[in-house]
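not sure who needs this but someone in the group chat was asking about Phosphatidate cytidylyltransferase from Flavimaribacter sediminis so here u go. i didnt clean anything up, its just raw.
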Amino acid sequence: MQNEVLVRTVSALILGVLVLALTWIGGVPFRFLAVTIMLLLFYEWFRIVEKKHLSATDRLVGGVTMLATAVAIMITMPLIALACCTAGAIILAVLRRIEGHDLYAPLGLLYAGFFGIAFTALRGSEPTGWMAIIIVFAVIWATDVFAFFGGRSIGGPKLAPRISPKKTWSGFLSGLAGGVVCGIVAGWILGAPEIRLLAFLCGALSIVGQIGDLFESGLKRHFDVKDSSDLIPGHGGVMDRVDSLVFAVVAAYLLSITWTGLDLTRIG
């Protein structure tokens, strides 16, 4: 247990510092970070679902779609990136249905692609884009940490035993509380004046993030896979590390473009 926690902590600290540094820098380095995560999510998703039939054509369509989406993100053309990702997913879905196969593969294109697009778009909303990302990071990272330790130390009734047998309601509530508190602290430091609305948003992002965690757990359970890969010591794969962040980032970006006047760092 102690060794596991140490490995997880060291890995998380190293990755956390790197991600924060690139987030602060922004521009091309941050877009490269977003594209790298997106491509790794795509790779791990296809690695998980490969137990179902994936033809060479399926892999080709998926690879070309992600490459085109990545290029569009790097040259800051989010609408083109969205069009590439969506079109590729539709084409792959049609091919899969013609062959009589499931739609997990095209869903993976949307999962990875929408994250990459939302992540870069949210950060690119200057001059406060990096602040919005920091608040999202604070909520999700705190949720993960408090849920992990709260669930292990308190225990109790299971949250969703058929999806993730180890997750408990105590972990869920601990994560929610920790995410809201840390999100508020981050927002206060960054100058958000309306704390009550910020608390609501942090709570919503924490819940959405935990749904993302359960979603990935359900996917792995369905395909009888323990980890999405073994790229990160103590954590498994990139998807295992950012499953909550994927849902939270997309949710935060959708809120930012649908809620008129919303600014996670200037709420009021």
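also Residues 195-222 form the longest helix (28 residues). if thats useful
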